[in-house]
Design goal:
14 strands, D-Maltodextrin-Binding Protein, domain 2, alpha/beta, four-stranded parallel β-sheet, 2 domains, globular
Length: 327
C-alpha cells in the first residue's frame, strides 16, 4: 500500500521572486515596513520615532542533549516515547518555510516542498515510520517558529532556526547541523561590496531574526526595515524600497539564484548555526534526533545534502559542525 504524500498546512502564501512577475503586478503592495526610520510604501518621509532595539541575548548558549544508546528501528521505538506517540498518530508534524529557495521551498513543477531543511524532516520521518513521506508540513513565518513549539502545534521546527539563549527558554534545540554567516544581498549593479557603503540607508531583514540585532549594533545609522520573511525583503529590494537585504548566506544564496540581478556580498557580519527546534517536554525526541544527526555526520549524508542544494551557490559550502553535549 502506497503511503500518502506529505500534508501541507499553509498560513502564509508563497512569494514568487521572478523579476518579471514582480514588475507585472501593477497593484502589488508590500506589507507595512517596520524599523527605525522606515517609510511607508508610498515613499513618505522617514518616521521620526525609532523602533526600540531588540532585547539583548541572555548569556551563554547551552549545548544539546546526548543521544542514549543505539538508534531504535521504526519497529522498536520505546513504548510510551514521544517517537512512539508520533508513529501512532501516523505523521510527523514539522514547522517549515516554503519561500527559501534551496533551504525550504515549493518546487513549482511538482508542488512538493524541497531543500536542505526539508531533507532533514524526511530523514526524521523515515527513522520513525520507515517512510520519509509521513509528514504534515506546517508553513509559517519565521517569527512564529518559537510559538509553534510553545503551543504544541508541531513536533519539530526545521526552518533556518538559529540557536540563541533567549530561544532556549522555550525551545530545546538539537545539535547544530550547519554553520552560516550573515551577509548582504544587493543589486548586482549597485557597486556595494561592504556594509559600510550602506551607512544611513535602508537594510531589510525578517521579523524575529537574530540578524536584526546585528544590524542595529553597527555604528552606521542603518535604517533597519523588518518584514515577515526574506522573500518579502527581496521584493522590497527589487522595487527599490531598500538598498540591501541582510540574512544568512545560505538563505541569500537561494535568493540570488532566483534573481541574477542581485548578488551576495560583504564579509561575515556574524556566524550562527542552525538546529532543529523541539519542545523541552520532549527530551527523548531531542536525544533521538541528535542520534540521527550523529549518524548523518558519520555517513556523510548531512554534508551531501548541503552540497546538493548549496554547492553551486556558496564556496565553501556551509560546514557541518561537530556535536557537543551538556551531559
Amino acid at each position: 500500500m502506497t503511503s500518502p504524500g506529505p500534508v501541507v498546512d499553509v498560513k502564509r502564501p508563497l512569494v514568487f521572486l521572478a523579476v518579471a512577475a514582480i514588475l507585472s503586478l501593477g497593484g502589488f503592495v508590500l506589507p507595512s515596513l517596520h524599523g527605525n526610520g522606515s517609510a511607508a510604501a508610498s515613499g513618505e518621509q522617514a518616521a521620526t520615532k525609532p523602533r526600540p532595539p531588540s532585547k539583548p541575548d541572555c548569556g551563554t548558549v547551552r549545548e544539546s542533549l546526548r543521544p542514549v544508546g543505539p538508534l531504535p528501528s521504526p519497529q522498536a521505538l520505546p513504548s510510551g516515547s514521544t517517537m512512539a506517540r508520533i508513529k501512532a498518530r501516523g505523521r510527523l508534524i514539522a514547522g517549515v518555510d516554503q519561500g527559501k529557495y534551496l533551504l525550504g521551498y515549493r518546487n513549482p513543477q511538482t508542488g512538493q516542498l524541497e531543500g536542505s531543511d526539508i531533507d532533514l524532516v524526511h530523514m526524521i520521518a523515515a527513522a520513525i515510520f520507515g517512510d520519509p513521506n509521513r509528514v504534515q508540513f506546517v508553513v509559517r513565518d519565521i517569527a512564529d517558529r518559537v510559538s509553534l513549539i510553545e503551543q504544541g502545534q508541531v513536533d519539530i521546527v526545521v526552518n533556518s532556526f538559529t540557536v540563541t539563549c533567549l530561544r532556549q527558554k522555550s525551545v530545546e534545540f538539537s545539535t547544530p547541523y550547519t554553520t552560516v554567516h550573515q551577509r548582504l544581498l544587493v543589486p548586482a549593479a549597485s557597486g556595494v561590496n561592504e556594509v559600510e557603503q550602506l551607512a544611513g540607508q535602508r537594510v531589510c531583514t525578517s521579523i524575529g531574526a537574530t540578524n536584526e540585532a546585528v544590524l542595529r549594533r553597527l555604528p552606521l545609522h542603518l535604517q533597519v526595515v523588518t518584514l515577515p520573511g526574506i522573500p518579502d525583503c527581496v521584493v522590497a529590494l527589487q522595487q527599490g524600497k531598500v538598498a540591501a537585504v541582510s540574512s544568512d548566506d545560505a538563505i541569500l544564496a537561494g535568493m540570488a539564484a532566483q534573481d541574477p540581478q542581485t548578488k551576495v556580498v560583504g564579509r561575515a557580519l556574524a556566524e550562527t548555526r542552525y538546529a532543529i527546534g523541539m519542545s523541552p517536554k520532549h527530551v527523548d525526541l531531542v536525544r533521538f534526533v541528535n542520534g540521527l544527526l550523529e549518524r548523518g555526520r558519520a555517513d556523510g549524508s548531512l554534508a551531501a545534502s548541503a552540497h546538493k542544494w548549496l554547492g553551486e551557490q556558496l564556496h565553501p559550502v556551509p560546514a557541518v559542525p561537530p556535536a557537543k553535549y551538556r551531559d
